[in-house]
Amino acid sequence: MTPPIGPIDSARTPRFAGRDGFARLPRLDQVEHADIVVAGVPFDSGVSYRPGARFGPNHIRDASRLLRPYNPALDVSPFDIAQVADAGDIAVNPFNIGEAIDTIQQAATDLTANGTRLVTLGGDHTIALPLLRAAAERHGPVALLHFDAHLDTWDTYFGAEYTHGTPFRRAFEEGIIDTEALSHVGTRGPLYGKRDLEEDRRFGFGIVTSADVYRQGVDEVAAKLRDRIGDRPLYISIDIDVLDPAHAPGTGTPEAGGITSRELLEILRGFVGLNIIGADVVEVAPAYDHAEITGVAAAHVAYDLVSLLALRTADEASAQGPAAGVGADRVR
Ligand SMILES: N=C(N)NCCCC(=O)O
Ligand SMILES: [Zn+2]
Ligand SMILES: [Zn+2]
């Protein structure tokens, strides 16, 4: 008699990994090919303050159940024009940040091997570094749009180089981001000193503060960012704490005076036509959430990112002609 199949081994796969279906999409193993995959990274061993973002991916998936297939703001049905699937969670070692970073980089490389575009649900912001490494392996140094209350270009915390406050400094040092096209959007709040800003500028970042978004408005901000990026391969990293705590209380390092979820979504919608190659939504920590406010915001942000990627995928497919067209090799 074959032995019964037991529960998942919690010593190999952390018990906070698993469970299916962003936007009730099929799992990756249920489709022959995916143009876009959504994957979770339940990792928060890089945080400086409140922990809990390891539970972010499934919270966002839970909150994504109400998403509908047509996106009127972009006039697109993303799941009709591209095969989108949920790849589940990348199971990472919560006790070894270096190993976790390597695991994430390898998984991202594997998931994008055939030109598939990846939207990652975090997890804390540490995960942006291996995701950028994987993106740069494929595309060379990438343009970066970083939505966040924080700069995340600090050097170390308690001597640690790999944390959620340091990924973009490491990315600069590694030469994997294009210093001609780096922008933070939504920054605000107290810093450790003026030097934080001086160093950040030296790395090549431009800053659109939360107050700039308020004063200039979303259309002007999106237009300026579009100009700076041009047709470069673009990675978009969204720390949910870019939103005001009123719009995203469920996060680890909240700062007052943030942008609204409407402003964030409207800025993103201004990026149609950009060469977006990947994106993440990080720092959702459900223990501090109420009524799924943060989960719903993150789910909608991820949905608009998927919509933008789907539009880009369809554009590229139609430029290649009908034989390579979206849907040509798909079982539905
Ligand atoms: N990436 C996020 N969410 N926060 C970074 C905050 C780093 C600090 O505690 O100074
Ligand atoms: Zn942040
Ligand atoms: Zn961050």
UniProtKB/TrEMBL annotation:
SUPFAM superfamilies xrefs: Arginase/deacetylase (SSF52768)
Alphabetized GO MF terms: agmatinase activity; metal ion binding
Keywords noted in UniProt: Hydrolase, Manganese, Metal-binding
Domain of life: Bacteria
Free-text remark on how the cofactor is bound: Binds 2 manganese ions per subunit.
GO biological process per UniProt: putrescine biosynthetic process from arginine, via agmatine
Cofactor(s) in the UniProt record: Mn(2+)
Binding positions for Mn(2+) per the UniProt entry: H125, D148, H150, D152, D239, D241
InterPro entries according to UniProt: Agmatinase-rel (IPR005925), Ureohydrolase (IPR006035), Ureohydrolase_dom_sf (IPR023696), Ureohydrolase_Mn_BS (IPR020855)
Similarity comment: family membership: Belongs to the arginase family. Agmatinase subfamily.
Record's protein name: Agmatinase
Species the sequence originates in: Microterricola gilva
